[in-house]
Amino acid sequence: MPDVAERAGVAVGVAGVPPTAGAGAWGPLGHLGWFVARQPLGAAGALIVTALIVAAIFAPALAPHGPKDAAFAPYLPPSAEFLMGTDHLGRDMLSRVVWGARLSLYVGLASVLLGITLGALWGIVTAYFGGIADTSSQRVVDSLMALPPIVLALALMAALGQSVTNVIIALAVLLMPTAARTMRSVALSIKEMPYVESARAAGAAEWRIIFRHVVPNTLATYIVIFTVNIAYAIVVEASLSFLGLGAPPDEPSWGSMLTAGTQALETAPWMVFFPGLAISLTVFGLNLLGDSIRDLTDPRLRGGLG
Amino acid sequence: MHQYVARRLLLFVPSLLGASILIFVLLRLVPGDIAEIIVYQAGAESATVQRQQVREIRAELGLDRPIVVQYLAWLGNAVRGDFGHSYIQQRPVTQILRERFPRSMELAFLTLVAAVVWAVPLGVVSAVRQNTWADYLVRVVSISGLSLPIFFTGVLILWALVRFFGWLPPLEWVSFLDDPRENLKQLVFPTLAQAYYIAAPIMRLTRSQMLEVVRQDYVRTARAKGLADRTVVYRHALANSLLPVVTFVGWWGGRLLGGLVIMEIIFAVPGMGTALVQAVSNRDYPTVQAIVFVMALVFLTLNLLVDLVYGWLDPRIHYA
């Protein structure tokens, strides 16, 4: 009975404790109800993000046409046949927007996974060893952060050349220094913990301590930086494509669709509206979800487990 | 205080040098250099001639020397204001910078002023009238400003201008010194579009700071001794809630400069951002390098100024 389960979830949620004990009895819906009641905005974000993921995974089935099929008349306004109209080359906008979800999500996830993971390891390892390794790596982080993000991404694209893979690499480089700095500060406090000391006293090798004792304890922070940065990576990807320097123009990127639409603002404003709305909604949803995940994992808001 | 200033200034130089080294290395990480690009873009000649030309251009540009030597040569010239030659534009990069830099800085300055002028009062109203319709309106405006990517807002404004006012992006740049009115007319829309975006977080920050400050003891004291509401809000509460707003401008300096690139492209402002995008798509390395360096310089200077102003405004701050 989902109704009862939900109410139970709400009741426990208001008390401020996740329904861990009751979860066995009520099933996953208890958790869901608790989340919806505790974080209504986060739940709305989760809904938007789920829609995005569904669009990305099932793009071939959902899109009525191929994203690169220039098979129709150009500049057709939205109609029953083409819900979002067609673009300057006669491609179905709806199909391109749906496929755009796949590209955005792929670039966002891949770049964040690459950048945050490398940045995290960089920060953790240098923090653990300290000394010159730490100081010099902090200077590199400073230097990377001295470059305005989009400008750094542009410079990297100049060096790498335009392709989807290179956008991912450029974004990863962009995300690395922030991740390194945040994870460094977390690792600095973990490395002073008694359990690290006892592992050392027991004769564990340095790398074993790093990967068995330090890394697992930075996981909560890692998850937070991860979710918060996906929206950011998606926006920067769209910005680069918008400037004509991200994914190649025939790729269905929301950013490059906007550029094409800007060329035809007067005749075909729908070419701008739909991809723009798609990006805004995505960013909005990811931000809402990221905020609530941060609230839930923040030790200060969770009550003394950190 | 003097020590704080000195330490902060000492940090500035290594960061800038580090940034310049990074750009230099990053632009040379990838196989294929500017010599090859110049020769292969020209095309036509046979492969042997091309290889010969590549060698000649490399020698001319010093690309055959070790990277450390190249960097030191570049740095030595840059310090003297010489950033090399743009092979695409066929003129010294310094000339491009001299032409473009003031335009971008004007746009950045106007944006910051517009954002602060519009965000701080609204943030105050939102805090003073907490949980009224005015507060909700301000919060909706700021949340929408944060969620709409800046290029989408820009394009929407451009669309509205084109559609309803028959506005067209200017074909030719008019400098402020030649014709201030015309110049401001060209910059008003990119300024407002970006200010809307930058204003959103400033609004939220002002609001939350005000809400915190009005609960402080000294504000209660001010009220208790019979000061008018206005005086309490402006003289006591606002002055103290603006401190974090100042730092914030430093944090967002990077986004401001990135947004500048996008605004210049949308509204056809021939500034540094437009030049950077052109240079990137032509792989005009000397120009890319110089513009990125200047942007890092501006960004770091902004942060330095913010830190100094902050230290001056809040005597409790000591650089640790």
What does it look like?
The complex is a heterodimer of chains A (306) and B (320). Chain A is mainly α. Chain A has 15 helices and no strands. The radius of gyration of chain A is 23 Å and the shape is globular. Chain A starts with a helix and ends with a helix. Mean pLDDT of chain A is 84; it is low at 1-17 and 301-306. Chain B has 320 residues and is mainly α. Helix content of chain B is 78%, strand content 1%. In chain B, strands 1-2 form a two-stranded antiparallel sheet. In chain B, a hairpin with a 4-residue loop joins strand 1 and strand 2. The N and C termini of chain B lie close together (12 Å).
Quick overview of this protein structure:
The complex is a heterodimer of chains A (about 300) and B (about 325). Chain A is built from 15 helices and no strands.
Quaternary organisation of the protein chains = heterodimer
Unreliable sequence segments of chain B: none
* Biggest β-sheet description of chain A: none
Helical residue percent of chain A? over 70%
Structural class of chain A: mainly alpha
The helix-strand sequence of chain B is HHHHEEHHHHHHHHH
How many beta-strand runs of chain B?
Answer: 2
The whole-angstrom Rg of chain B is: 24 Å
Shape descriptor of chain A: globular
Tally of helical segments of chain B: 13
Average pLDDT score of chain A: 84
Give the DSSP E fraction of chain B (strand runs of 2 or more residues): under 5%
Number of helices of chain A: 15
List keywords for this structure.
heterodimer; A: 306 residues; mainly alpha; globular; disordered N terminus; disordered C terminus; B: 320 residues; two-stranded antiparallel ribbon; 13 helices; 2 strands; 1% strand
Indicate the topology:
The complex is a heterodimer of chains A (306) and B (320).
Chain A: H1 2-14, H2 20-26, H3 28-38, H4 40-57, H5 59-62, H6 93-129, H7 131-145, H8 149-160, H9 164-190, H10 194-201, H11 206-217, H12 219-242, H13 254-263, H14 270-297, H15 299-302
Chain B: H1 2-28, H2 34-42, H3 47-61, H4 67-79, E1 85-86, E2 91-92, H5 93-128, H6 133-147, H7 150-165, H8 180-213, H9 217-224, H10 229-251, H11 253-266, H12 272-282, H13 285-313
Antiparallel strand pairs in B: 1-2
